[in-house]
């Protein structure tokens, strides 16, 4: 692996005590993007599925959305885990303050909460599709 690839990998997933700069943004925004894309695609598929009397694509889109949203949860989890590697409370540092460690911890916690809630909402919407047909 050359130097450029190594630097890109360290920026995306972090390394040891370094925060995962790109991963914390992915963890914060990926699940909401999946949620809104699922919402739009599901609404577009309703008339099509009703005229063809098929629910397969509704379920396929729901499953894909849940899996992709779980990827956002995993990204936020990994970004948050980088702060544990660096130490929960570094010696001589307060619990909150300026710096990359605290920003990464905040973005990891926020991304984890948002992603987890949106994943549960997507899961509930997908499960509801088994009980409510597309034409109702």
Q: Overall mean pLDDT score?
A: 83
Question: How are helices and strands ordered from N to C?
Answer: HHHH
Instruction: Give the helix level as a range of percent.
Output: over 70%
Number of domains: 1
Provide the structure class.
mainly alpha
Biggest pleated-sheet summary: none
Number of strands: 0
Overall geometry comes to elongated
- The number of helical segments is 4
Q: Indicate the radius of gyration in whole angstroms.
A: 19 Å
Break the fold down into its secondary structure elements and pairings.
Blueprint: H1 3-13, H2 21-52, H3 56-86, H4 100-128
Helix pairs in contact: 2-3, 2-4, 3-4
How would you describe this structure to a colleague?
The structure is a single chain. It contains four helices and no strands. The chain is mainly alpha-helical and 136 residues long. It has one domain. Helix 2 (21-52) packs antiparallel against helix 3. The model has no long low-confidence stretch (mean pLDDT 83).
Give descriptors for this structure.
single chain, 4 helices, 76% helix, mainly alpha, 136 residues
What's a quick, concise take on this entry?
It contains four helices and no strands. With 136 residues, it is an all-alpha fold. The model has no long low-confidence stretch (mean pLDDT 83).
């Amino acid at each position: 692996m050359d130097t450029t690839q190594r630097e890109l990998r360290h920026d995306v997933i972090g390394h040891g005590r370094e925060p995962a700069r790109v991963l914390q943004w992915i963890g914060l925004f990926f699940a909401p993007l999946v949620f809104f894309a699922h919402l739009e695609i599901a609404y577009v598929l309703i008339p099509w599925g009703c005229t063809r009397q098929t629910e397969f694509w509704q379920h396929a889109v729901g499953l894909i959305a849940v899996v992709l949203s779980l990827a956002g949860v995993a990204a936020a989890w990994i970004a948050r885990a980088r702060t544990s590697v660096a130490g929960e409370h570094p010696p001589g540092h307060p619990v909150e303050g300026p710096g990359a460690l605290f920003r990464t911890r905040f973005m990891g916690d926020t991304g984890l909460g948002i992603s987890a809630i949106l994943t549960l909402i997507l899961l509930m919407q997908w499960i509801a599709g088994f009980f409510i047909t597309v034409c109702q």
